[in-house]
């Protein structure tokens, strides 16, 4: 043996490797749980936006219907067109909220991508260590 070379036995090295792999898998499990919780929170926020958008769209529908009734009743007077303008603005807000919420709830947004990437790196490191 040359000076500085590790004098540990093969069994000791295997034991250390086993311990390190176990610790690594436990750490990856904690990372996975944390990331899944973050994704669940993101989905919850997206659902809240969709709900807010749906409420805005329902309100817009009521206002637009009110505007149509007033416009037809008054044959184009200002009160009806004012209601129509408010309805269009509320509808645009609702569309914006629903679209953003739906984007946050896409399955591709909810995958634990950091954990998957880290697990791939760990697998490569373990392969290199075993060689």
Radius of gyration: 30 Å
Distance between the termini: 21 Å
Label the structural class. Answer: mainly alpha
Topology order in helix (H) and strand (E) letters:
HHHH
Helix content range: over 70%
- What gross morphology would you assign? rod-shaped
Contiguous helical run count: 4
Described by strand count, sense and barrel closure, the largest sheet is: none
Poorly predicted tracts of residues: none
Count of strand segments: 0
Keywords: Membrane, Transmembrane, Transmembrane helix
Transmembrane segments: 50-73, 79-98
InterPro entries: Phage_holin_3_6 (IPR009937)
Protein name: Nutrient deprivation-induced protein
Structure description:
InterPro entries: Phage_holin_3_6. The chain has a domain at 40-130. With 131 residues, it is mainly alpha-helical. 87% of the residues lie in helices and 0% in strands. It has helices spanning 10-74, 78-104, 107-110, 113-130. The mean pLDDT is 81. 8% of the residues are buried. The chain has 4 helices and no strands. The longest helix has 65 residues, at 10-74.
Please give a quick description of this structure.
This protein is mainly alpha-helical. It has helices spanning 10-74, 78-104, 107-110, 113-130.
Layout of SSEs?
Layout: H1 10-74, H2 78-104, H3 107-110, H4 113-130
Give structural attributes.
4 helices; 131 residues; mainly alpha
């Amino acid at each position: 043996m040359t000076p500085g070379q590790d004098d540990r036995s093969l069994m000791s090295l295997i034991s250390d490797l086993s311990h390190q792999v176990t610790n690594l898998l436990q750490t990856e499990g904690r990372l996975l749980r944390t990331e899944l919780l973050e994704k669940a929170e993101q989905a919850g926020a997206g659902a809240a936006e969709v709900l807010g958008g749906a409420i805005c769209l329902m309100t817009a529908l009521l206002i637009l219907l009110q505007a149509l009734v007033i416009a037809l009743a008054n044959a184009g007077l200002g009160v009806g067109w004012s209601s129509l303008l408010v309805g269009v603005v509320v509808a645009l807000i609702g569309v914006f909220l629903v679209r953003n919420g739906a984007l946050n709830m896409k399955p591709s947004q909810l995958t634990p991508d950091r954990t998957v990437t880290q697990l791939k790196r760990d697998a490569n490191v373990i392969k290199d260590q075993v060689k």
